[in-house]
User: What shape does this take?
Amino acid sequence: MAEVKAKIVKQANAAEASIDASTQEMILRAQQLGVETVFDRAVTMKPCAIGMQGICCKNCAMGPCRLPLPKDGIQGEDTRKGLCGATANTICARNFIRMIAGGAAAHSDHGRNVAITFLAAAKGEVDDYKIKDPIKLRAIAPYYGVATTVEEDGVVKDRDIQEIAIAVGEIAVAEWGKPTGSLHMIKRAPQPLQDKWAEQGVIPRNVDREIVEIMHRTHMGVDQDYKNLMKQGTRASLADGWGGSMIGTDLQDVMFGTPSPLQAEADLGVLKDDHVNIIVHGHEPLLSEMIVAAAQSQELIDYSKEKGAKGIQLAGICCTANEVLQRHGVPPAGTFLQQELAIITGACDAMVVDVQCIFQNLANVAKCFHTKLITTHPIAKMEQPNVLHIEFDEHHAMEDAIRIVKIAIDNYENRGSEVMIPRHKSSQIAGFGVESIQYHLGGSFRGDYFTLNDNIINGRIRGIAGVVGCNNARTKHNDEHIRIIKELIKNDVIVLTTGCSAIAAGMHGLCTPESAAVHCGPGLAEVCETVGIPPVLHLGSCVDNSRILLAATEVVKAGGLGNDICDLPAAGSAPEWMSEKAISIGQYFVASGVYTVFGYHMPVEGAPVFKDYLYNEMENMYGGKWDCEPDPIKHAHLMIAHIDKKRKELGIDTARDRVLMDMADRQALGME
Assistant: This one.
């Protein structure tokens, strides 16, 4: 470890900063060593109050124009204006949809890179990527208008899988910039929801156009109607959730394998002091898939032993962690806020980063230790001289991965003696998806969402909650995620989770079937015990929120719970959100009919009329709406109250007697 002489101006209180023992230990270690972390910076730097309210406009050089709310609130007409005359509602709406544009661009650019690589693999232009799940490829091809069968001499035969892949890949890549038409994946939504989108004029045309149009509309002097601004914000968010993200998830499944439940561990304790520790961090799995393969090769394992290690331990941070977890069982070392702490253990021989949620301060922390920090993406570089940039090329994917793993192995001998790995880790079951949930509900022959619907109707399961999103240093790390999830499952609400929320749930032991008996209400506990699933289902990375949309669609298709997603006893939550991606995700869930509650705060408090539009009027348009509640218990009960309201509307709010069904009853249900 390099000598550290830095002085931290203000220090975070470890116990107040996080509920995780491993995080608390590493915060204290960092402070003892004089290494500043995000937790300390959160104490030093206070957020801008006007910016938090969403009413600071810097879209031209006459600003920034700040329109703070009067201390006594709005009395009568709201006369606040910027220099150009823009009202608080206009400014707030512009800022809000610019966040949607940023989030949609990040997720959809991820999807674009996947689609381009998928097409190259289909054409045989890259050697290291293959079609691993032809069944899923055949399942999604019809949504692109691609036939999976051909007729030859009057006989219908399966079409060649490579032909299907090329056709799907070409259409998928075009979804980002085609000149006419609309996105193909929209057709996967329930028909009543598609009809609402058509009526509101928000069906996305292509991914890039919707993002660019937001930037145009929010330029000084263009769109000045907050409702019209949000119309475009909605269209761009749908281009993310039902477009770029969904395409990315599907094609990753086809190339890398559709996830299925597997066992793994989670937390900083997964690192090993006698192994070469490599951490992959970011969001795109194109490189990390290759690093997994390289790290598991006998040649490189033997090479690590030559250097004095007992092997190679691969771990992840953020959503790259979730990508390699759900397909390979690679354990996540932590969430977004733990990225610096992984280096501070002194055991991280290399941290390999791609895009999104990467702290620039990682370079400063790495300087204090032996860790090699390696950037790999052409759009994500760091200016610090101690950062190594190895630009990833999918045409030489395995070659690049082997080079990176060897750098980590060679660095093992430079590790200092002051290694401190927290001894905290938990077991988890991850890798759930639309297909695996269906399988668990009924096996290979009877897999169907009817089983889930039946248990919602009979009251064993009260409803469904999607709890997703980031960590935020302005809140107590992981506290809101865990308290909300525990309150939901205690009240018989099954939870679907992605992103850092999923990692947090895994770290706290909520992603195991055994946790149901400890934390769940009697109904959900019974279902989990019978089916053998956890009460919290880990569905992958933040781009995989599309899995939640499709799972909700399958619930609608199974029948008995209404005709649209908005009819379901379901709600969404992002407790500790911090990124623009979260706003885009929130809006496409709202526009898909989901009541969506954010924690911490929402940047709309400075424009009460615009806030009311999001929190109330939008429900009349799409069936979903926004809400915000920082208190985790109140937050959970807002979701439960909405679920109960939907149960009442469906007429399933009263308990039903359990009836032993005979064969005639089952035949009447179509289950013969």
Remarks:
- The first strand starts at residue 56 and ends at 57.
- The CA atoms of residues 294 and 402 lie 6 Å apart.
